Give the backbone structure.
Amino acid sequence: MEVKKTGLYEVHRRLGAKMVEFAGYYMPIQYSGILEEHKRVRTTAGVFDVSHMGEIEIRGPRALEMVNRITINDAGKLSVNQAQYSAMCYEDGGIVDDLLVYHRGDHYLLVVNASNTGKDFEWIMRHKIPGVEIENTSERITQLAVQGKAAPAILQKLTDVDLSQIKSYWFTEGKLAGTPMIISATGYTGEPGFELYFDHAHSENVWNRIFEAGKEFAIAPIGLGARDSLRLEKKYCLYGNDIDQTTNPLEAGLGWITKLDKSDFIGREALLKIKEAGLKRKLAGFEVEGKMIPRHGYSVQKYGQVVGQVTSGAFSPVLEKNIGLAYLKTELANPGETVEIEARGKVVPAKIVKTPFV
Amino acid sequence: MNIPENLKYTKDHEWARIEGSIVVVGITDYAQGELGDIVYIELPAVGTRVSASQGFGTIEAVKAVSDLFAPVSGEVVEINSKLENAPEIVNDDPYGEGWMIKIKISDPKEVDTLLSEADYKGLF
């Protein structure tokens, strides 16, 4: 299958980005360096091309019923122009994907993980009910995430929309850099900022205008490498690492989006049983003592016994420590508990800590 | 890509500078660029015996961890202790301040098995 390019591929190349294939797209993994990019987002602002993300629209008189059937959060609570973090589950409670649900008035927009777009679309089509239309619009949409303390001031220079009026997890439709778009107060970094969705024909123009406006704030392009360490510091789950079809939202710490009391949804029965039986394991955050960076797949041990596996790990540029996530037996998942991480024939001590890390 | 003429190379992207019976070892500019930000380098203790093509340490970069391979066999007679607290030196100056270990070579003929600058360029 041919590797796809976002509308900004040539821009990334010109900027000297290191490109990798990710989820079927050539994507920038880094420009100046992951540590520098990470710190840039935590101190001023950065721009991520995340056009590989999938967009699926659900419309029609029964769209809300459909969305509530396939997702675990309660889309019925959404006002027009409000967004919500949610997930789709299999019947057994395993996770199909995590996603954002946008209530756009006449339809719902689901923003899903790039690597899952095809699978999600098939899953949604399989559970389609009469009275809804479903469309995969991923290929037509450019998504930029502008994140960091300076992001609101930078973007405000490019729009008449009063961005200070858009609260976290709300959005508006308006013109920015002369381009009609969704301006959404969301992100994957834990910083203030916005995610912008617009027609891919305008990719380069919007990108350039943002960099002109952001020059005085030392805005920088940010690759997928720093995106990963930024989200991990905030303990935001990454599908394929921390959550997948073998994990359920309750053990992943996503109980807060799992609305078991709303109308019936796919996976509800199983999740109710899991909750009643009590969680056997939990996704816990840990800090490694020493300089080994924990990585996906490393084993977690206690008294020489394997008690879990690292799902995500990174050097935290903010803490200057090596941090990670792992599913651990519930009794081992409490802050202060100690475990060991084993990799490459070496065993190093680690301590369970409160999350988010930063 | 910076590949100095006066050095020898391995296919694993280490360089070796021959100074009589001492071989100074580091990683190439290409290697540091591929690894990205280096945050930790584990080097052997002085006195350790290393063997050609065998691991002598590890390098932790933000993106990935990888092994360091000895270009020649011998005894480690010096390590670059500056790298313990400032491993990023290897990113900044891989052929100079970013050297890693010095090996007292046990079999000088092994030097002939190393790649020349032209051989190494040929890998790309």
Q: What stands out?
A: Residues 203-214 of chain A form the longest helix (12 residues). The mean pLDDT of chain A is 97. The longest strand of chain A covers residues 305-316.
